[in-house]
Amino acid sequence: MNADKFRRLADFDNVLVVDDKGMIIFYDMADLNVLKELGIRPEEFMGKNVTSFYKNITYENSTLMNVLRTGKPLCNLKQKMITKTGEVIETINSTFPIAENDKIIGAVEFSKRFFSKDAIQYLDKYSSHKIFRRNNTVYTVDDIITVNPKMESIKNKLGRIALTTSNVLIVGETGTGKELIAQAIHNLSDRFGKPFISLNCSAVPSSLWESTLFGTNKGSFTGAEDMPGLFEQADGGTLFLDEINSLDMNLQVKLLKAIEEKTIRRVGGKKNIHLDIRVISATNEVPDILLAEKRLREDLFYRIGVVQIDLPSLMERKEDIEVLVDHYLNFYNNAMNIYINGVQDDVLDCFKRYPWPGNIRELKNAVETAYNHVQSNRITLDDIPGRIRDYEEAPMAYVKSLNVDSLKDAVQEYEKEIIVRQLKNSDGKIAESARQLGISKQLLKYKMEKHKLR
User: Fold this and answer.
1) Which sign, positive or negative, has the C-alpha torsion 398, 403, 409, 413?
2) Among residues 86, 32, 83, 36, which one has the least CA distance to residue 336?
3) Calpha distance 119→88 (Å, rounded)
4) Can you name the residues that pair with 97 across neighbouring β-strands?
5) What is the four-CA torsion angle of 263, 172, 420, 412, rounded to 10 degrees?
6) Which of 272-281, 318-327, 329-338 has the lowest average pLDDT?
7) Helix (H), strand (E) counts: the chain
8) Angle between helices 206-214 and 249-261 (to 10 degrees)
């Protein structure tokens, strides 16, 4: 092998060595989850024939077996392998013979795995790798799973929205997929090669918000160092500001100035920094209410909401429940050492009755919960969370007594009553109430504010 081939080997993650019969005598893998997908433990991998783990790999088409037969190297070949459980593993391989006294005594293969979107969770281990997550995103427009007409319309519009530089405001309840939409826009745009920087505004204390967004200069306060803020980190790309409605009015003024002028100054800095960024914001509350209650400045709203995308709740797109469940079954079949081929019909009926206050995120979590309880290859009612299994729709007499005109209003009133009842049972303890309701404290606080219970 020449020096150029050796240099290219640095690009590979895995090494596999076989003897002259194709039996594995050494391996070193960056991702041992590959062995999980094969259904074996590391100690069981040694001494097995390299073709024995896959449905479609034979002595004739195996790169390692070819090199053993011919004695000639095969460089940078793509290979698709199907495991015994039906999972697809795609790699690019460079394979070389090992010779002793002009006799082939084995072969060594260097490989790198490529990941499908359904196996995206494995990329967490590679977040700093030069190939994986180069722009800090996980999702593209193909990850928007829907058969709902409104969502399909939104999905179809994203390509056109991505072509412009206009700021975007995404409006939707918690768990409806606001960041997915933001990442899809970024990856459809010409900015896809630059960073996507995300911040949940409610997670940053007001005292740290300015330095987080705009950065600091050394000496501006005790312990301060030269540090770029998120605006600078997003230069050339997209800055996503989630829950922008949580910012106090003073910070909204500073944000407005930065967005309008596309110029920031670090805390303690003496010069302006000009930036090329696109700002995508999101709120889990209706902008008209925020404006009416003076919790969102009108001038900021007009600036960030040049394009507004209103995401429907899962209640409004119930035809998507079945396709989303199928999607998450595929996702968790890849993520966990368990294979599930479906859900029972009464589980699907239950899912369609339930109002999903946590929206798509709650549905995904419900499927994950089932994987931790399932006893067969199909999910049953006993496997899903109790709050979903035991949910009973409000009787028609109750709905009529609410004096509302729409199903959505009725559900909102019923949700309010459930929250009030649970808070009373928990003596007003938000953490305990959230646990009993099966939602996060943050989501419960949001719903309490929405129903004016705080």
Assistant:
1) negative
2) 36
3) 10
4) 107
5) 150
6) 329-338
7) 19, 16
8) 10
| Radius of gyration (C-alpha) of the chain in whole angstroms | 27
Rounded Cα distance, 376 and 368, in Å:
15
Q: How far is it between the farthest Cα atoms of the chain? A: 92
CA-based nearest residue to 26, from 37, 36, 14: 14
Q: Which two tokens stand for residue 239?
A: 């800055």
The answer to whether residues 360 and 176 touch, using CB atoms and an 8 Å cutoff, is yes
Q: Measured at the alpha carbon of residue 278, what is the angle toward residues 274 and 280, in degrees to the nearest 5?
A: 135
Which secondary-structure segment (H or E) carries 19?
strand 14-19
Cα 260 → chain centroid: 30
Nearest residue to 116 via CA among 335, 363, 293:
335
- Confirm if 328 and 143 have CB atoms less than 8 A apart: no
How many angstroms separate the CA atoms of 150 and 177, rounded?
14
Sequence-distant (6+) residues with CB within 8 A of 157 are: 309
Query: Three-state SS for 314?
Result: helix
Task: List, in sequence order, every residue forming a beta bridge with 197; answer none if it has no partner.
Answer: 239
What's the sign of the alpha-carbon dihedral 244, 250, 254, 260?
Answer: positive
- Alpha helix ranges (H) inside 30-169: 33-38, 42-45, 63-70, 149-162
Could you tell me if 282 and 179 are in contact, meaning their C-beta atoms sit under 8 angstroms apart? yes
Q: How does pLDDT run across 91-111, given as a tens digit for each residue?
A: 888 899 999 888 999 999 888
0.90 exceeded by pTM = no
Smallest CA-to-CA distance from 255 within 283, 296, 226 is with: 296
Q: What is the pLDDT of residues 275-313, one digit of tens each?
A: 999 999 999 988 988 998 899 999 999 999 999 999 999
Structure tokens at 68: 């053993």
- Can you say how many angstroms the Cα of residue 273 is from the centroid of all Cα atoms in its chain? 32
CA dihedral 367→369→371→374, nearest 10 degrees, is -110
